[in-house]
Amino acid sequence: PQPAPPPPPDGRPLPRRGSLESGEDLPAPVAGEEVPVDMTTRVITAVGIAVVALVMLALGRGPATLLVMAIVGLAAFELYVAFQRAGYQPATVMGLLGCVSVVWIAYKEGLQAFPLVGALVVVFTLLWYMAEVVKARPIINTAMTFFGFLYIGVLGGFAGLLLGFSDGTGL
């Protein structure tokens, strides 16, 4: 017999080990079980978001770009919060501003948005850590800021670039 694993740090649950690999079946659902209350809330929320998205898309390219900016901003915020939970301290403000602004500038100005906003994010992120706004581990935190901008912002910026062409061609 193996000893029991130590308790998880910070209240995180232990990963499940071997239940599906060992050939065990998943527990069967209980007959007559009602839909959880939060499932109704989730469906209503999803329908509401879909209606807002369809309205924004129907209003034209400008409002659709605002919708993309909101989506990119929320995605970047979620990523930076996950970095913070993992113990990193990225320059979240710089990353969020870069991620959101590259979408709008790509919509208005085209490909010039990427080097412009990229340079601004790099310069101001480096200044952020040089001014010691955050004093802990500047190299890795700078890298996390850049990663968030490159992963969410630059890839999201292509949506703004695509929305910038009136006839849908030109890339």
Description of the molecule:
It is built from 5 helices and no strands. It is flat. The longest helix is centred in the C-terminal third of the chain and has 26 residues, at 138-163. By secondary structure, the chain is mainly α.
Mean pLDDT: 85
Count of separate DSSP helical elements: 5
Query: Main beta sheet: strand number and arrangement?
Result: none
The overall strand count is 0
| Strand fraction | under 5%
Order of helices and strands: HHHHH
Overall geometry: flat
List the defining traits of the structure above.
mainly alpha; flat
Secondary structure blueprint with pairings:
Blueprint: H1 37-59, H2 61-85, H3 92-109, H4 113-130, H5 138-163
Helix pairs in contact: 1-2, 2-3, 2-5, 3-4, 3-5, 4-5
Short description:
This protein is an all-alpha fold and 171 residues long.
